[in-house]
Amino acid sequence: MADASQNGEKGEVLLQVNGLKKYFPIQKGLLRRVVGYVKAVDDVSLYVREGETLGLVGESGCGKTTASRSIIRLYEPTAGQVLFKSRVLSPDGQPRMVNLLELDRAQMTKVRQEIAMIFQDPINSLNPRMTVADIIAEPMVIHGKYEKGRSEEIIIDLLRRVGLRPDHLRRYPHEFSGGQRQRIGIARALALNPRLVLCDEPVSALDVSIQAQTLNLLQDLQQEFKLSYLFVAHDLSVVQHISDRVAVMYVGKVVEMASAEELYANPLHPYTEALLSAVPKPDPLYKSERIIMQGDVADPANPPSGCYFHPRCRYAIDRCKAEAPAFRELKTDHWVACHRAEELQLKGI
Amino acid sequence: MENALKSPTGAAPELSMEMRPTLLEVRDLKVEFNIRGGVVKAVDGLTFDIKRGQTVGIIGESGCGKSVTARAILRMIPKPGRITGGQILYYRYSRYPRQGGAQKDVEVIDMTTLDPDGEPIRQIRGGEIAMIFQEPMSSLTPVYTAGTHLNEAITLHRLLPIKKLGDQMVEKIMEYRRVSKEEARQIAVEMLRRVGIPKPEQRVDSYPHQLSGGQRQRVMIAIALSTEPYMLIADEPTTALDVSIEAQILDIMRELQRTANMAIMFITHNLGVIASMADEIVVMYMGKQVERAKVVDLFYSPKHPYTQALLQSVPRLGPKTGSRLASIAGMVPDPLNLPTGCVFHPRCPAFMPGKCDKLIPNWSKVGENHWARCLLYEE
Predict the structure, then answer these.
(1) Which of A1, A178, A274 faces B244 most closely, judged by CB atoms?
(2) Using N-to-C axis directions, what is the helix angle for B181-194 and B213-226, rounded to 10°?
(3) Fewer CB in a 10 Å sphere around the end CB: N or C, chain B?
(4) d(CA A70, CA A20)
(5) In Å, how far is B212's CA from the nearest CA of chain A?
(6) What is the pLDDT of residues B84-135, one digit of tens each?
(7) What are the residues whose beta carbons fall under 8 Å from the beta carbon of A20, sequence distance 6 or more?
(8) Cβ proximity of A146 and A173 under 8 Å
(9) Given the DSSP bridges, would you call strands B263-268 and B55-59 parallel, antiparallel or unpaired?
(10) A278 and B246 in contact by Cβ < 8 A?
(11) Contact indicator for B193, B34 with CB cutoff of 8 Å
């Protein structure tokens, strides 16, 4: 999985997000006047190459999910650019970059064939009144690709691929365990042969042993179908395991982005360092120097001045309070938003 | 030595775990749920003990009986579940001991014989054995402030000394009274401060929805600890929280355990958390205890194939070792239709045909303080 990038043959950029913003208005009073904005996603820039997995980590409420949903325009972004290399929208079938935010409704529906989504909650993301066959067929029906007979074969094949049996077809979601339901969700995501899959915490609701099975399945499917993943999760060990590159978010902003190995070994942002140190290690003899971040995550409706992380940062200086750091490429492919990134010696794992 | 056990002021003397007095002994506990489809053996033959000041971790996947065990100890099993066998012996130390005669103050109560609605269990539940639940969102009542929640626990279970008679040379006799409203509020504020909630004087009047998830869980911990319990049952206390908040909460729990010499029964499925918290670990699978060992032994030489597989299936931070995780094949079986023999045999990599599917393994000793339920370790 990680081999492609290690051999130097990096895939071309499939998804490029520039300065994505999503503000939710706060309304008050009788006239529902807008009194402020929750800056759920505030200037997110990232990219995903073909065939790779980009992990997106951060604490709850940092905007990971909103970012991934804004990319596919489930939430209408406030500003920014989402460039996606689309096949279906180009007349000659050659993949071409399009800005998803400029597409009209019909075009957007079309492009959604190529971008699928796997949701966190395997219970609520499946319609309880539809059978497995209907659930997996639904994307095909919506996009007018359902043909009797042939599509059913595809569905049976998909079921086998995700480790379910053909006799599961006529069953309803409640008859399955959590891990199996997540497999149904994965099969549905793959029904239209997408190129990019947005995985929103796909394993966080699953037990450890089932989580391992699901992660392995996602990796196998990635190789088989040449998929690219945007893998949103809060579990840093899971993200390291599955990702080629990792982006770390804090209060609506991406604060660091690098290859998984680089980011975990040589973090450049103090937030990344603190997050890594806080992960409990499954080793009773491991004596770690925990960095306990004081206080809670900043309120995205009323973020602190300057660098949003400065009230919790142990390296903060006066400049951090006044000036927001730019997101810049400090080393090759290692992006960071911190004023002191050059001088700090941060500890990785 | 005994009277130092529950000294509210000083830290406990460092005792090795074996020397500490037992607080709770669970012997062959069985809990069954008689539902329409049949009988689910939620807990089947669980045996372990918790010493004062010790942390015992209970790990296993969902549905393995971890939480039912916790609720069985406090006699809070929802219907139609009931305890069908075994004992839960609670070594009850007199709440406010007359110093000098501490040993006499120990009373052994079999919790399984208590009336779940009776006065004795209601004194123990919340007061002497407190519990933190997994969901900080739904375990606080939305219409009451944090302070009201705390007050309830404090006024029910906390007593304050009113006078001291005699001195240390003679026998010290103390009498106690319930706390007043103002004192309860003071204690509540103090507890909130101890669990690290900023501006506790104001936060004490906050409603649950005004608090963040981490703060809510801290309020839960404050409630549980405000009664100065001997034992805390923490049922997945950090599962719903982020790593940074989780680290804070675990630190608070360790700190409070050290100062109050409180025992903790820590239920989780997060192996990373348990490695840093527990002294001893019980591994459960489908209601059965499959292994019990000291934390280092369990992580470094797990004996039961299930424990081994569980440890291998977690992704670990650090340099990448392999691109695939070792996963446990198959799924957790239907509790109404358990496999014959060893319940783990259909998923077990060390499955011995003709043996594991026929014989029920015994609980056997596999090392010093190390027990497992597996036919590999039987002749």
Answers:
(1) A274
(2) 130
(3) C
(4) 8
(5) 8
(6) 999 999 998 776 555 444 445 678 889 889 888 888 898 888 889 999 987 7
(7) A41, A43, A44, A45, A67, A70, A71, A77, A79, A80, A81, A82
(8) no
(9) parallel
(10) yes
(11) no
